[in-house]
Amino acid sequence: MAFNTTLNTLETFGSSFNTINASQMNSTIDDQYSNNNNTTGSGGFITKVTADTIRSVINCYLIPPVALFGLIGNILSLIILGGKKMRQFTTNILLAYLAFIDTLLLLIVFMRKVPCLVAKADPITAQNIDYVMLTAPAILELITSRTSNLLSLVICCERCIAVFKPLKVKLWVTPKRMIFSVVAVTVIVIGLAAVDFNYSTVIFYYDNTKNRTVAQLMYQPFFLENQQFFNIYNNVFLTLVLRILPMILITILTVAIITQVRRRMVWLKDITHATQNSNAENDIQAVTKMLMTIVLIYIICLVPGSISLFISLVDSRFTGRGEFRNTHRAVSSMASFLSVVNSSANFVVYIAMNQKFSDILVQMLCCFRKKHRRSDHGKVESIGTISSTLRS
């Protein structure tokens, strides 16, 4: 099976797949197409060499350490938010599940960047891994990223109720309803994205020229039979429902929440005898500020990718095979890095803006350190006992 034959079948795979998963995925097929058709470096505002340099720096040196930091932070967040001391707060159900989703997302992203590191030692193995990661794992990345989008929308809705209807928030926002919300969001996203598991597959064959087994990425027959449906469903429907529409709603709700919080703060300053109510109001405002910080980071990090996605939808020149393909590839990598930053930043926000979270984290780390010291001390004592026994 010749490489050029499969490339002819798959030359549009990269841009289409990038479109359904926004800027978080950068297809290897796009790179191959660019290598074959743009060696002189005329694909847009920047040259191919510049685009490759930007992508290499981001994918190999920026995303892996940030993703690793985010993985550790989200795992710690999940442990703390799911613990007995924090689990009693309804909002923490959303935050714990968001930490879980971000953990899965960052794990997949980190694994997808492994080929970049492996390529320095074995390019063929790196390509094989990259092709495998562009099948089911890429769809799982799509599912987790879109679930994270909708969870941010649920957080905004919960804060709207807390800010605009503070007396009814405990009645309307209950643990059971929060659990139902996260389950419903997950089921909806999986249901909408499940069809994309029929998008592509990987086959392995023995390449006599390389004298080893290599992988090749191919469309599945179901996609080839329904290509027009996939293009409309992924490029238009899923993009609008799971990316652009939630972004618009989150932005509107965030502006409304911030405006209402400022109004209430001004109103509270004018009240001199509000003691208990003021304390309760301050607690609500503290939680609101923390959650709005998370949402604002989400907006700042994902707006560039959404704009890039929208431009690629309305202008075919700004795609992996268009006139501005080099610019598209560089911008997609930058937006992908911002997405990783967004999924990794929540842990820092919790530490900076939630005193109880910080206290529990310090206690947890100190207890681990004490246990480690006790273990080492026990080993030292046992070694000393053995030594004294041998001497006697």
TrEMBL record:
Its main location: membrane. One of its GO terms (cellular component) is membrane. Residues 73-350 form the G-protein coupled receptors family 1 profile domain. It is found in: Membrane. Keywords: Membrane, Transmembrane, Transmembrane helix. The chain crosses the membrane at residues 61-81, 93-111, 178-199, 236-259, 291-314, 334-353. CDD domains: 7tmA_FMRFamide_R-like. One of its GO terms (molecular function) is G protein-coupled peptide receptor activity. InterPro entries: 7TM_GPCR_serpentine_rcpt_Srw, GPCR-Ligand_Int, GPCR_Rhodpsn, GPCR_Rhodpsn_7TM. Coiled coil: none annotated. This is G-protein coupled receptors family 1 profile domain-containing protein. It comes from Patella caerulea.
